[in-house]
Structure formats: structure tokens, C-alpha cells
User: Fold HDIG domain-containing protein from Clostridium gelidum.
Amino acid sequence: MKENFEVTLKQMILIIHRTINSVDKRLLNHGEQVAYIMLNLLKAEGSYSEEEILEICAISVFHDIGAYKVAERDKLVEIDTVAPFDHAFYGALFIKYFSPLSDLYNVVLTHHFTFKYFKDRKMNVISKEGLLLSFADFIDRVYFKKGALTKEYIENHQKNYLKEHMDLFNDADSKFDFISKLLDNSYEKELESFFETKILTREEVLSYSKMLAYSIDFRSEATVKHTILVEAISYQIGKLYGLNEDELTKIKVASVLHDIGKIGIPVEILEKPGKLTDDEFEIMKSHAIIGYNILSGLNIDDIRDIGTLHHEKLDGTGYPFGLKGEEITVEIRIMAIGDIISALLGARSYKEEFNKDKIIKILKNMVDMNKIDSKIVNLFINNYDYIINEAQNQSSDLMNMYLNLNNEYNTLLKSFV
Assistant:
């Protein structure tokens, strides 16, 4: 990570891309290919600024992010059936509340609704960019299913889409020859270079990270509560420890992403009402290396390490690498303790929330066994009430917003069907 905490949109897109790909290989590159189609369509259209195109293409990359929540992935690549839309509602709500592109949530909301759908139901079109994204998504599904961008097939389905979109598609291809780039995969470098022009602010990095992490965690309410509390506790400990603003920002981003590898863990293990078997625990442990791999090679190694090495122990008995002693940085030590405290505070089906005395006793025992840092534990114990109160206040609004998503989802569902 650069000293001034510089993260590009390209880096964030790659994180999102790798995470989405780890869910279902059948959707490999789908988001990026749709974004590339949108890039060319918007350039050919000619009325959008580069900043507007950047934002719409970023939205396009993770337009299917809501599919983590609903069982629709089997249908997302189909082209001859009615497209599913539950995931579009969830994805739109994630973007509305947990991304720096909240003003564009309607684009994702409508990305599986054609112009014919709105016309038949005599509904107003919510987003013209959403209709264009629906068209771009259809084009890529044609390619995915047929192994070629068959213009004849697309034209035969024109009744579902606007003629102006088909004209724009042909115009964009004649200007930029983008179909051939999709077919030979040379589009990837062009798209990455385009995203690399955007430097994200700290707030944008944190917001993108939350959007991704919470959409993954939405499969498990306990997991998202844990992530929110880890962020709040680790931040408070880091502030009292004396970390500077850059270090605290890294703590916040790493906290949000610390369990990103759980995307690869079956939900029945994440939500198991009881103690895991040895085999299940080994599967659960793999989330650390999955997350490490997702965040590797992006010039954010410190955030990667802070977030995904929180199960390492000072005596070398942790995972995924068995680091020990000075190999474990202060930030990783803080994250490890924040993770433990959040887990102890959380009530699950097989355990009650632990009280203050029991949490302190467990932490002291772990210090005595040389598992975690004594200085950080003592700092936490001496400021227990302050840290917990601040962390709970900091996370309560976010948690309430998150839990209200289901209510808003049901409202959206009623308005479209």
C-alpha cells in the first residue's frame, strides 16, 4: 500500500471481480464483460462525461452482486427464459446503502427488466441507464450461451429491447470494434486501464468494501453483525493505541474485508447450530487463505495482511501461515483481538453472549498462553466499557439499516409484480 493510501478503482474492481468469481465459475468474467459492453455503448452514445461512464461501468461490474442472497445463479446465464429479478432488488439496495454510488442504485434495480416489460405493464421506466444495462447484460448472455456474439439472434429478440439500443450496439462496434475484443479477451487490459484512471478517496474505499462484505455476509445475519462489530472495536482499540489516520483507515477497511474469504464457505457451516466437526472446522479455516488470495497482487498487501491474518497466534499455532512473534504486526494483533472480542460478544444458537468478566478471563488466558498481545489486551481491559459503548453506538445505525433491507426488498417486490 502506498504511503498516502492510494487505491484505484481498478484495484477495487479486481477485488469485487475475484470475489464474485469465487461464488460461481459459470459467471466468470460476466460482470466485467457487461461493463465493457456498457463502456462502448456509452462512448458511442456521446452524451456522458468520463466520470459518469466510470461510475456506470463500475456499477455494471457488480450488477449481479445481489445473487449472493437468493438462489438465482442457475438462471442468470440463461437467454431464453424470463430473467430473474430478486437479486436485482437486493443488489440495488446494497448499492443504495453501502456504496459510494448510491445515486445509481436504480440502474441495478432495473437491469433485468426490458423495455417490453415496462410497456406491457404501462409502467414508467425507472432508469434509462438500467434499460441499457439490461440490453448489455442480454448481449453478454447471448455470448456466454452461444459462444459468439450472434447479431442475428440479438436482432430476432429486438421486440424486447429498444431499436435505438440495437442501433447503438452496431454503431459502437463499427467505431470501436469492441465485439472482436470481447471474443479474443483483449478487452480486459483496456477496461483495467480505464478503471485505473480513477483514484478512490478513503471514504470510497471503505464504502466499496462494506458493500462487498455485507452482500457476502447477508447469507448469514450472525456473520454481518460480527463484521460490523469487528470494525468498530478494532477502530476504537487502534485509536487508543495511538495509530495515525492512515493506519486507522487501513484498520477500518481491513476489518470490513477480514472475513471476505467466507464467500467460499457453505452457509450450512457458517450457520451451523452447534459445534463444528473437525472436518467442518478445517473447511471454515480455509476462509483465511481464500480471502488472502482474493486480496493478493493488488498493491494492498498491508490491508490484505491486517484483514486475513487475524487468526495467526504469537506462538505460531495460528493459521493460515503459522506466523509468530514479530512476524505479526501491531495492526494484525489489534484485528485478531477485535475479532475475538466480537465473537465472544455475539450470541449464537449454541451460545449466549459472554459477559464482561468472562470475556476478560478468556483474553487473559490467551495472553498467558502467548496467543495474543498482552499490551493490546491490557489496553482493552482498562478501557473496556468505553470501547464497547463506543463500538456499539458506532455500529447500531449501520446494523439497523442493514436489517431493514428485507422490509424495503418486500416493498420493491410488491411494486414490480
In short: The CA atoms of residues 373 and 397 lie 31 Å apart. The beta strands are 7-8, 199-200. Residues 219-405 form a domain with the Hypothetical protein af1432 fold (CATH 1.10.3210.10).
